[in-house]
Amino acid sequence: MRTSFIAKYPSVLVFLLALASFTIIVTILSEGFGIGVISTSFIKTLGKTLCLCLIAVAMDLVWGFAGILSLGHFAFFGLGGYMIGMWLMYERTRLIVTEALMQGQIPPTGSEVIDSIGSQIFGVVGSNEFPLIWTFADSLGLQLLLVVLVPGILALVFGWLAFRSRVTGVYLSILTQAMTLALALYLFQNDSGLRGNNGLSGLQNLPGVEAPQSIVSMWFFLASAMALGLGYSLAAWIVSGKFGSVLRGIRDNETRVRFLGYSVEGFKLAIFTLTACIAAIAGALYYPQAGIINPAEIVPIASIYLAVWVAIGGRGRLYGAVIGAGFVSLISTWFTGGKAPDIPLGFYTIKWVDWWLVLLGLSFVGVTLFAPKGIGGLFDLMKKRRARHEHTS
Amino acid sequence: MGSRLFLGGLITMLRTLFACLALMCWCQTGLAQELTVQEILQQNKKLVEKSSRKTIGPVIAQIAASNLSQAQVFLEAWGSKQVWQRRSDGLFFFGTEVAKRQYELTDPDSGEAVGEFTKKQLKQLKPNSGVRALIATALVQFQLFDPDPAKRAEALQTMERVPTAMHLAPLRLSIDNEQDADLKARKSRLERLLTISFDPDTATRVAAIQSFEGGLGVDVRATLNPLVVTSMNITSGDLPTDENIARVIKPGSEYLSMPAAYDLLVAGKLAPPATSAEDIRAALVAHIDGGQVAKISVAQLSDPEIRRQAYDRLAEQSLVPAFIGEEDIAKKLLGYRFYETFAETSVAVTDAAQAALSKIDLNVGMNQTLDLTLDAISLASIYFLAAIGLAITFGVMGVINMAHGEFIMMGAYTGYVVQQVIPNHTVSILVALPLAFAVTFAAGVVMERLVIRYLYNRPLETLLATFGISIALQQLAKNIFGTQARPLTAPGWLDGAWVMNDVVSISYIRIAIFILALIFLCVFLFIMKRTRLGLETRTVTQNPRMAASMGINPERVNMLTFGLGSGIAGVAGVAIGLFAKVTSEMGNDYIVQSFMTVVVGGVGNIWGALAGATMIGFLQKGIEWGYPSNTLAAQTYMIIFIIIFIQFKPRGIIALKGRAAGD
């Protein structure tokens, strides 16, 4: 009696179709591959939004389905970005430095090149030595592996510690928030080895690639779309199976699931770590499009925003997370970008740059109070109405 | 013999100078009794005419030490440029201008008028600022006997600032006749300090050093430290026996690495400099000849081995100095011994100084621990203040209020606004405290009525909703007050610090915050244990239905309790604003710490919050002490520690037991 997960979770097909058509339309309209209606910077915004949708899917898995309100997933996102950023920065600096040294009268030795890369990258924090964590920065393959491994292992260790001692609910949220704060504060130090609050920059340039930004941004846009599609399918596959049922069981009544003989901690740890890895991949795709990463990106508030996107979109339904992240982050960009028209009231002019956060904050309150199911809840309403309609006819 | 390297060169030089001065004073007080000021000046005529800071010292010392009653008058006149030299015979006189370009001269010794002269016949002594400083220093000893105690205190202050050998003798003389007890104590303390530095007799110096054992004064350490300053010396033979050797150092030990030792040899011109990779590169670049260096093509030179080969070939042709690498350095170092000598030559004195310093260090360390403890207590009381409101809303009611930090911010801004209206700081703070309570109490009640009461059974959603309120309030504050930090000034009587000694001090404002935290604790305990509201709160928390059936209105109690917690956060905000800047984001700094405090201490218990705050305060100060100048690292490690701590005590330090524990 096994049915395919798509049959159990038909929205996957709809979603993939929508994503594919969106991607194709954007590609056609883009500067890089198409007729040039959409500017490169907006392509980047769209690509970044897709990455945010991916991490929102991860958040929905861990919160909406397993009931773990993690306020640390943006830390994993940022770590993924740092890992890929290390390679991008190292390789690009290496190319530049080697070229410069080749201009000298005698060719440079290996250690001269490394020293010079070191002083280029770490000069800004008053050092010129490579810290230990940059050991693998010269290898794209290893660094890509680290994108998943570092946040994964952090999530594994943290999750093991937290779940093992039965920290649940709000306490877990505060604990994850503390972890995020600790990581952000650590990275803010100059001797953390990741350039302190300068962060890693120049990530939009792919080393050794001559193509203009309009093309590169399209590559990343397509890669982000593909990652989102894959991530969404994976999440749908997980929640449609037995694993997903157990997760929902844990969310609704953890004690009962434990009494039924399931290893609640194991399930929680698995989903926590998996979503951390997804978040890291999303981050590794996001930051090359953003061009810069610094510790300010992973302060706890970012993770809280993530929870809010998911809440606004609708928890416990994967498309809700995508809608929430896409909708809120795009509208945020619009309001804070100064493009929204100001509202003159005569005695006072409402500038959206100033008032957007007030509106956003109050809308959280509104959503939690009046629409606990979020925007996704609207689909339920439509379904119900149609069902009633069919019933009456 | 080895060559000397003066690491502590400056100090040594100064000390030698002072020693010479002291010696001169000593001899000349005996010999120069009969000489008048004029005679002394004539003996040193050349030095006086072209006076400079470097050469004039002995002359001033001689005049000052002459025991002549005119010495002080003359030095004062010299310092204020009133001394003139008669061109005809080169004698020196005091000059006062009686008419334009017309001066009346008086003899410096007898004080008799010599006659009037025109400016052309005279030459004014114009001591430069360096010389004037020396004169002033010499004059200080006369001020020690001044009848005015303020003048004497001033002289002591000058001597404490710049201790010199010539002050020792007059200072000793002045102690016995000193009437003022305070000044007498200061004089005798200074006398012992000067004895340590300048007395020629070793036993006296050692006794003076021992009299300071365990003293915490900065001046004692400043006097003793130069005695144990060492300089590094190198010898190729045996160690000298006539020098006060501190220790022998082996190159390659933790005190002196091989390269550093070799650099010392190089600096002493005992060895040629080592060849660095940079030197090789420079040499190779200098000898490029048609795309080749020593017949090796330039393209191959990216390999360090080949670079070395090329360099060696150049060295064979004597174009560059021979390569000196690690092995050569090690071999060369075998022929030398490195040892440190004290600038102070007396072994007894350096031994006594070291012993005294180690005792002082121990004492200072103990006092620093005390200081650190005080700091930790004050930090703990800040955390406690920030967390106590949360201990009510989160700990007792179980409501997770992410806007707690914004209530703190709101209280601080209330204080700021009150200070804009009432300029008197004392009155404004007294007004601000209850007003902040009222404002945040009202805000808390409104928030509870409008939002939180609908979410009592959904803690995660409470978190999100209150977080929404938090960012809305933050942005609102930014819109109203701007992003600039606003000052909340403490009243004048809270300025300054309570200084126990040179090591331990604590500012009054921190003491005030500690007292405020204590008051809060008492008020909280009183409300919870002794009032109707406290009783009702506890019943509603334990069992709302039962409470309702007993005639308690749970809604009203919840509202008031939440308002109380918020109000306390507002008062804490005023206190925190007194030492931290008031910004719209100040709540962020405290929210995570406050939750940590409550969780670590144990939810649902005020003693838990107290224990949590104490632990976090001490922990943070302890880590900051271990990682000075890096508070970020301290915070990081503290949070990691807390995460691990919760593993072992998931319910906090003080866990509720039995039925009170709930769930």
From TrEMBL, chain A:
Chief subcellular site? membrane
Which domain of life does the UniProt lineage start with?
Answer: Bacteria
Bilayer topology annotation: Multi-pass membrane protein
List the CDD domains.
TM_PBP1_LivM_like
Record's keyword annotation contains Membrane: yes
Subcellular location per the Swiss-Prot or TrEMBL entry: Cell membrane
Classification via InterPro entries:
ABC_transp_permease, ABC_transptr_urea_perm_UrtC, LivM-like
Keywords, ordered alphabetically? Cell membrane, Membrane, Transmembrane, Transmembrane helix
Residues spanning the membrane: 12-38, 50-79, 140-163, 170-188, 216-239, 259-286, 292-311, 318-335, 355-379
Enumerate the PANTHER family for this protein. HIGH-AFFINITY BRANCHED-CHAIN AMINO ACID TRANSPORT SYSTEM PERMEASE (PTHR30482), SLR1201 PROTEIN (PTHR30482:SF4)
Question: What is the name attached to this protein's record?
Answer: Urea ABC transporter permease subunit UrtC
Source organism (scientific name): Parasedimentitalea maritima
Tell me the lineage of the source organism. Answer: Bacteria, Pseudomonadati, Pseudomonadota, Alphaproteobacteria, Rhodobacterales
Gene that specifies this protein: urtC
